[in-house]
Description:
- The structure holds two protein chains of two kinds.
- By secondary structure, chain A is α/β, with parallel strands linked by helices.
- Helices cover 31% and strands 27% of the residues of chain A.
- Chain A contains seven helices and nine strands; from the N terminus they run E-E-E-H-E-E-H-E-H-H-H-H-E-H-E-E.
- Chain A has helices at 40-48, 69-75, 91-101, 108-117, 133-141, 143-146, 163-178; strands at residues 2-11, 14-24, 28-34, 55-60, 63-64, 76-79, 151-155, 182-186, 197-203.
- In chain A, the strands form two sheets. A five-stranded parallel sheet of chain A has the order 6-7-8-3-9, with helices on both faces.
- Mean pLDDT of chain A is 86; it is low at 207-211.
- Chain B is mostly helical.
- Chain B has one domain (2-220).
- Chain B contains ten helices and no strands.
- Chain B has helices at residues 2-18, 20-41, 45-68, 70-78, 80-85, 91-106, 108-118, 125-152, 159-186, 192-220.
- Chains A and B meet through helix 2 and helix 3 of A and helix 1 and helix 5 of B.
Amino acid sequence: MLEVHNLQCTRGDRRLFSGVGFRLSDGELLHLYGHNGSGKTTLLRTLCGLVAPTEGEVRWNGEPIRQQRDEYAAELLYLGHKNGLKDDLTGIENLLVACRMAGDSVKENQAWDVLERMGLRGHEDLPARVLSQGQQKRVALARLLLSNASLWILDEPFVGLDVAAVAFLEKVVADHVAGGGLVVLTTHQEVALTSGKVKKLRLGWKEDGHV
Amino acid sequence: MFEAFRTIVSRDLLLAMRRRSDVLTTLFFFVIVVSLFPLGIGPELDTLRLIAPGVFWVAALLASMLALEKLFFVDYQDGALEQMLLAPQPLSILVLGKVLAHWLVTGLPLVLLSPLLGLQYDLPGDTIITMMITLLVGTPALSLIGAIGAALTLGLRGGGVLVSLLVLPLYIPVLIFGAGAVEAEASGLGGAGHLSMLGAILLLSILAAPLATSAALRISAE
């Protein structure tokens, strides 16, 4: 269970958001939305523990994440704007390295299977730098299929994907939620979920009244 | 934990193999700097023998400096650093792995090449061996200490210059004891004392530098 209390973040003199609080239980999805620059990415990074909030705290299973960094990290999968792919490594190598660093023991044939399911058949062996943006995104997202993490934090996961890949990713996310997992994501499109509960949080309803 | 360490070492070695030019830059820099001195000073063998330890060590220092910039920068740019920060293993273990891989591709070649370069300075066999030992013990310490500076200046504009200002003063003890050991050995005093100090510096930096680097990375990545 992920709990957020009265979270506030400032960048320099600018207050990005304040008083953000929510509670996300197993089998729930949080859809975070708001205008550009409203602090969605910063909020996600704060949830991961990459950014320290100026006020408030993030709790995982009742304990602040700062006090259980390694345990929380084992439960967490974060995919940000940057894919974290190495240009000079192939799709397979990238996927294997990413999974092993996250503590998931993955066999090589599993990785091949997963990349094929992600629609990258025939491209598994190419260095990431020659793949298109969408293909790189698919390689990064392939980790979702191999991960044991229960909390997924995804920053704009649908950007750059074609229609088929969007549908596939929606299904993967829905399956994860149906299986009792937690998902926090930002996107500008509606997320179709077959089961589970979708919560919505809108950032950027600032005092000045602008959207 | 060991699995993650091994993964990051092998990943970085593989990346270095795929992009050899970065590795060779450091090595060529070292070779050229060391070779320029005999050309500039002339074939005075006594002078050359006298300045050799200092020249080798200063060149190793600068070469290590040159290689530092790349240590975390690419990871920072492509997002791999974020994933490192979020890995369930202690960050200092991953940092240690990265520094080890970095030293294997930028530090070890200098050590292996130094005997050949020593011939230019007419160094006798045992002095060359002492030189290799000091470089073998000293260059990992340089990489470890330099990693702190590289992590602190990550993502800053003009970080390269700042790294030099931050790190070079910290390199001074390594330089003194490294070059000192070779000189002491060459003059017949025995370099064991200097070498022990160098070893102590290495042990201390293995213990402390990864922790300091991890803390710096967490701040820089925010």
